Amino acid sequence: MRFYKDIQNKLGISSATIHNWIKTGVIPACPKDGYDESDFLLLIDKIKNSEKRLRQGTNRTAKNDLTKSSLIASSVKDRLILKQVLKLKIDFDYSNDEILYVIAIILLQRKNLINLSLRRSKIVIKSSSPVFTKFLKQWVNSCRTDLTDLYRKLLVLDFPVNSVDYLGFVYESIRTLSEKAITGAFFTPSILTDDINIESDLRILDPCSGTGTLLLNSLSKNHNPSSIYLRDIDELALRIAKVNFVLFFNSVENLINTKKSDITDLQSPKGKFDVIISNPPYGAKYSDSKKKSIKKNFPSLKTSESFSIALFQSIKMLKPEGKLYFVLPESLMFVSAHSGIRKEIFSRNKSVYIKYYGKVFKGVMSPIIRLEIRKSGNEHQSEINNKVINFSDVNIRKNDYKPPYVLSQDEIEVLKRIQSIDSFYLKGKIKTCLGIVTGNNSKHLLGLDQDKNRNIAIYTGKELKPFKFTDPRFYIDFKPNKLQQAAKAEQYYSPKICYRFIANRPITLFDDQNNLVLNSINFFEILDERINPRALSAFLNSDIVAFIYRSMFNSTKVLKSHLEAIPIPINYYSNLEKLEQLYFQAKSNEDVMQELNTLCKTMYNL
Predict the structure, then answer these.
(1) Residue whose C-alpha is closest to residue 605's, from 572, 573, 577, 576
(2) Domains 185-405 and 430-603 are alike in CATH topology
(3) Which residues does residue 423 pair with via DSSP β-bridges, in sequence order?
(4) Residue 468 has what pLDDT?
(5) Can you tell me the distance from the alpha carbon of 403 to that of 411, in angstroms, rounded to the nearest whole number?
(6) Domain ranges of the chain
(7) Which CATH class for the 185-405 domain?
(8) Could you read off the pLDDT of 314-352 as tens digits, one per residue?
(9) Are strands 521-526 and 496-500 parallel, antiparallel or unpaired?
(10) 193 vs 157, which has greater pLDDT?
(11) Phi-psi region of 279 (alpha: psi -120 to 50; beta: other; left: phi over 0)
(12) What angle do CA 243, 245, 249 make, to 5 degrees?
């Protein structure tokens, strides 16, 4: 008999997706004794035939993600070469190992670093270094016995001999997006490290090195390869890295140190390092048992996210005067789940520099930062749009160890004044609820041409403007038991403050008309009758709150935790009548924003 787990494994989807499909009637619930084989196969065929559903399943795993390779070449020449490489890989079913091995020996041969000859169906390689020759033999032993035909086909291609990490470039291009998603590893653009200069006499580690791109763009030819240590979970990436550095130093005599290693394990290289530099994996896919093990081994971090573990481990391996450079998702600095590692970053006797880059990785939507930590001093700086801003521990500790996201030194001073004023918070004073999740909008949301008498208007984030809704675009036959997720009906039919979920600032209105809202809108009830919902909605719509939101949370989502952490000045209570008056005026289409902004700034003594 077959069960839900069999559907997950067959289609590469999560248990959450299975649950949603059952609730919304896409598939029947599994009988206690399971689906019989014929029903199971019919069910799989039904889902597979609905390709749109599989593509839109947001909880599907990387297993059913794009199976196409992601050519990242920028020049026409590179793209043509990579297309020919990819065609060989597909037509003859060559592995990534085999493709990269042959390109590696071609590059080494063209730089006269190895002697290569063909004997019958065998490639014979010699070099002046027995250690490097042995390394290449071990690599080829993991491949097919006969690669001579592939060698002849690739030999005619004009691979760039002097390009830094060309092998890594090829590897990144011929791997599928699924392969990258499983490990969380993506090719590192040189822009992230081209201003880093590492002195030549230092002991250096990259604990999640991949093919060595970061160091190849940061080192000079004067470095001693034997002082360079690379670690990674991907053995092929480490093989490529060893060849990369031979090409970089133009020598096979003195090799870098490479070792397959998982940064989430407790073991670390012996000794401390002067410099640690890395672009650790983001969002690597771990089994439930692996996640449990990671959380047990690193209890203070309260997360199994790979980049947090890599950073935590690396800080411990730094020498007292050492320096660390990490390329990381910007979310590490602002998402509550990463507060444990932020506390470690900003602990005493560390100086921190954060450089914001925005979105730089192909195929990855996350904005990126470069984090620099010096194990001495207590000076913190951030760089945004080429402006360097100083900030202090006080700014951090008062905000769950989130650094201020400000655009000038003047903004830091404004934030300091805001954080120093007597304030209260919404935590414990509001009850938040989520908007409706239908599970299938095309099925449940009805257009304006439907029977409005039988159906109820439902609003989305697009219709929520400051102070009021615009006309609804959809109606719904509201039956909560048929929907994927919905609060109790009485919660929608109670007075509430609605706010747009996807936004970089609070955009709110007070709803006392019992309106239904989709999940692009969330809402909260006020539990403290002193607060006055209309006054609060007006206050939250002000520009000074938008500034607080950006500088403290730097988020494109409005979360409950953010709303509860906004410092509201105590003198808000003495301005309730004026705030409420401005709310009514705004709802009547009067332009009150200038007056509202002036009032709210005055409340902070600005």
Answers:
(1) 572
(2) no
(3) 569
(4) 95
(5) 13
(6) 4-64, 76-178, 185-405, 430-603
(7) alpha beta
(8) 999 999 989 999 999 999 999 988 999 999 999 878 899
(9) antiparallel
(10) 157
(11) beta
(12) 125
Give the tokens for residue 520: 């692009």
pLDDT surpasses 70 at 204: yes
Complete edge-to-edge strand list for the sheet that includes strand 474-476 = 445-446, 474-476, 456-459, 516-517
Mean pLDDT of the chain: 86
Q: What is the pLDDT of residue 146?
A: 85
Nearest to 239 by CA among 106, 104, 111: 104
401 torsion bin: left (phi>0), alpha (psi -120 to 50), beta (else):
left
Under 8 Å CB-to-CB from 146, ≥6 apart: which residues?
A: 121, 122
Q: Is the pLDDT of residue 549 over 90?
A: yes
Mean pLDDT in residue range 23-43: 74
DSSP, residue by residue, 59-122: T--GGGS--SB-----SHHHHHHHHHHHHHHHHTT--HHHHHHHHHHHHHHHTTSSEEEEETTE
Query: What are the pLDDT digits (tens) for 70-94?
Result: 444 457 788 888 889 989 988 998 9
Ordered DSSP codes for 440-488: -HHHHEE-TTS-TTTSEEEE-GGGEETTEE---SEEE---GGGSSB---
Q: Token pair 């909605």 is at which residue?
A: 537
Residue 373 pLDDT exceeds 80 = yes
Q: Is residue 268 over pLDDT 70? A: no
Give the range among 54-58, 84-88, 241-245, 264-268 with minimum mean pLDDT: 54-58
Nearest to 159 by CA among 100, 118, 202, 218: 100
> For 11, what's the count of Cα atoms within 13 Å in the CB-facing half-sphere?
28
Residue with tokens 């095309």: 442
The terminus-to-terminus CA distance of the chain in angstroms comes to 69
**Does the domain spanning 430-603 belong to CATH 3.90.220.10?**
yes
Rounded Cα–Cα distance for residues 211 and 166 (Å): 10
Q: In what order do the strands lie in the sheet with 521-526?
A: 430-433, 521-526, 496-500, 508-511
Q: Which residues contact 552 (CB under 8 A, 6 or more apart)?
A: 399, 402, 404, 405, 415, 562, 565, 566
User: What's the pLDDT band for 451 if we cut at 50, 70, 90?
Assistant: low
Instruction: Give the C-alpha distances (Å, rounded to integers) separating 515 from 488, 493, 580, 597.
Output: 13, 7, 21, 28
Range among 43-52, 244-253, 446-455 rated most confident: 244-253
What tokens appear for 246 in the block?
């031979």
Return d(Cα 434, Cα 428) in angstroms, integer: 17
pLDDT bracket for residue 353 (50, 70, 90): very high
CA dist., res. 108 & res. 412, Å (int): 53
Query: How far apart are alpha carbons 146 and 120 in whole angstroms?
Result: 9
